[in-house]
């Protein structure tokens, strides 16, 4: 009798557990969207990769959407127009402070940190035929493509180049479009801020000869003093145009989630991405640094409770003060 009662109790507990899980899952969205960036940029490829993984692992239909990049993603996730998105930490801070150009004066504080992605290097590409091999070679009044309006590149690269004393004309557009304009001679250089390899740069290498312009040590130091970036080297292995690593600067990227999403859903989404890094790397090379140990690269953006729970269960130590609500 004791054995039978124990068995019945175990079955009841399993049934209750399943019932609770089903009730919790009933609050999940029927589908989800991930705000990325322009086609041809690293955000779109990376976002498509993890959207597919989350969809497969959670059973919730989802996919990537083309957007204007980090600034717009902060706004779209804040409002809930996109469930998830991706941003660099500079635009994230400006958005929290009410300095997002897309929603000026509004503190976009309903977009929560989800997981660390990778560092975004800032790099400049020119046609070899232009003769531009260094920052000092870029002529006054040069026409420079800075990516989509409001993107990380468009927000920070002009400030960097101004800090180095350059005078230029700004152009905006998707990375693929700007790459085409560079090839057609409509731009002098393109200033990319995207995870490497940038698809548009890789495509240019196939079609023509290009120079990837690195910063000098002095230029790098000036930029680091002026803006929230750190030193970085673009590995020579990512582009055939590089024989040695290229000195650069970079800014960390984080995935973000609407803070109102169910804790259990975000927990499972983070688990799907962070729990199998090898699979993420196979989907996108930029995911090599999508590792749990980089949770500490976020020092100000409130974490979604579901994300915080996963990281704290897997070696993290996220302060309760940095968890939303």
Automatic annotation (TrEMBL):
Signal peptide as annotated in the record: 1-22
Keywords on record: Signal
Pfam families associated with the record: NMT1_3
Keyword Metal-binding: no
Source organism superkingdom: Bacteria
Keyword Signal appears in the UniProt entry: yes
SUPFAM superfamilies: Periplasmic binding protein-like II
This protein's name: C4-dicarboxylate ABC transporter substrate-binding protein
Lineage, uppermost ranks: Bacteria, Pseudomonadati, Pseudomonadota, Gammaproteobacteria, Pseudomonadales
């Amino acid at each position: 009798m004791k054995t039978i009662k124990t068995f019945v109790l175990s079955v009841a507990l399993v049934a209750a557990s399943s019932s609770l899980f089903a009730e919790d899952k009933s609050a999940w969205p029927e589908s989800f969207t991930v705000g990325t960036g322009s086609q041809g940029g690293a955000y779109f490829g990376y976002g498509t990769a993890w959207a597919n993984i989350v969809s497969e692992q959670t059973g919730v239909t989802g996919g990537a959407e083309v957007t204007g990049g980090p600034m717009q993603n902060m706004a779209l996730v804040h409002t809930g127009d996109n469930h998830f998105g991706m941003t660099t930490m500079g635009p994230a801070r400006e958005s929290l402070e009410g300095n997002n150009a897309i929603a000026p004066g509004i503190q976009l504080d309903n977009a929560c940190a989800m997981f660390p992605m990778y560092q975004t290097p800032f790099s400049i590409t020119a046609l070899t035929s232009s003769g531009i091999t260094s920052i000092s070679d870029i002529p006054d009044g040069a026409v420079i493509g800075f990516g989509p309006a409001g993107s990380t590149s468009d927000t920070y690269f002009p400030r960097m180049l101004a800090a180095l004393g350059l005078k230029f004309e700004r152009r905006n557009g998707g990375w693929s479009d700007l790459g085409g304009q560079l090839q057609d001679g409509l731009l002098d250089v393109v200033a990319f801020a995207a995870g490497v390899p940038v698809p548009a740069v890789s495509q240019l290498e196939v079609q023509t000869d290009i120079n990837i312009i690195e910063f000098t040590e002095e230029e790098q130091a000036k930029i680091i003093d002026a803006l929230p970036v750190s030193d970085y080297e673009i590995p020579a292995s990512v582009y055939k145009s590089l024989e040695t690593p290229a000195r650069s600067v970079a800014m960390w990227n984080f995935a973000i989630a609407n803070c109102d999403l169910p804790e259990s859903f975000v927990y499972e989404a983070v688990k799907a991405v962070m729990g199998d890094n090898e699979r993420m790397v196979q989907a996108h090379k930029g995911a090599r640094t999508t590792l749990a140990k980089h949770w500490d690269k976020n020092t100000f953006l409130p974490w979604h409770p579901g994300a915080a729970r996963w990281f704290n269960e897997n070696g993290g130590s996220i302060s309760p003060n940095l968890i939303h609500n």
